[in-house]
Amino acid sequence: MKLSVRHITHYRFDHPVRGVVQSLRLWPADCASQKLLSWEVKTEGALRGAEFTDGAGDRTALVSWRGPLDELSIEVTGEVETVDLFGVLRDHREKGPASLYLRSTRFIRPDNDLRELSASALEGMKSATDLDRAHALSGAIAEAIDYAPGETKPHTTAAEALSGGKGVCQDHAHALIAVAHVAGIPARYVTGYLQVDEDGKPHEASHAWAELFVPDLGWVGFDPSNRCCPDERYIRLGSGFDAQDAAPIRGVVQGSTPEEHLKVEVVVTAAPGQQQQ
Q1: To the nearest whole number, what is the mean pLDDT of the chain?
Q2: Cis peptide before 68 (omega within 30 of 0)
């Protein structure tokens, strides 16, 4: 499937700032499930700094804007050809061992409820395959946390989302990572784009899911929000320990901290004749 992406991030500050420095991870991963046909990241007025591929295999660029500055925009446009590999991440070059992703953070730290959910999901599965165990954990999260936009915040933890029983893709990914860690399975947070939701409605925001490490297969993606593994509708950008670590855009504002107004527009469309039914 050929997918076209248009992603605009616009910042406006309530008073001019001395400058802004950002780290961008806005380039799709180079792997077997996706091939870049064209891709451009525009940062008008910015100074481009170092560009490198980090240990997780994700391309990163450093950019900065000099002030006085009261607004800035980042525009991503491109086309990617994708194939369905049933969520398996193949031909993705990275240097770190899978065990690195057993590390916990405050967003994914399991509490007693997450530990109990992990144990319950895997009850009676000692003889099951590693892949079946991973699917069971993803299914348990989908059942335990209803998809409900506006019920959680960017700083909501996995434990808090489970307690409230509602959340969005970020919460689902965090909770899945947490229960996987309880089971001793390396897991990480993944950012990217999704062309449609499970019900076929356009998805107008960046998306997130989790990857669990399955012996003999490697990293496998699971999206509890849509109760599936990533397929040809998905474009993978990058990964990290949690949403904060994997954020496609991270930065600092120089000078006094202003009130920041953020507007994000993401549109992902399929080439004519390729829309899923």
Answers
A1: 93
A2: yes
Please give the average per-residue pLDDT across 222-228, as a whole number.
96
pLDDT computed for residue 200 by the predictor: 55
Count of alpha carbons within 13 Å of 59, Cβ hemisphere only? 11
Sequence-distant (6+) residues with CB within 8 A of 260 are 11, 12, 13, 14, 253
Bridge partners (DSSP) listed for residue 241? none
Alpha helix ranges (H) inside 102-250: 112-121, 130-144, 158-164, 169-182, 243-246
Compute the distance between CA of residue 99 and CA of residue 186 in angstroms, rounded to an integer: 6
pLDDT in tens, 51-66: 999 999 999 999 999 9
Q: What percent of the chain has pLDDT over 70?
A: 95
What is the mean pLDDT of the segment spanning 117-143? 97
Six-digit token string for 45: 């007025």
Angstrom distances, CA of residue 102 to CA of 35, 90, 182: 29, 21, 9
| Phi, psi for residue 224 in degrees, rounded to 5 | -60, -30
3 state DSSP class of 79? strand
Q: Which helix (H) or strand (E) holds 181?
A: helix 169-182
Bridging pattern class, strands 47-53 and 2-24 = unpaired
The residues pairing with 13 across neighbouring beta strands, listed in sequence order, are: 260
Taking the C-alpha atoms of residue 266 and residue 176, their distance in angstroms, rounded to an integer, is 25
Give Cα 112 distance to the centre of its chain.
26
Question: How, if at all, do strands 166-167 and 146-147 pair?
Answer: parallel
Kindly tell me if the per-residue pLDDT of 272 is higher than 80: no
Eight-state DSSP code of residue 98: G
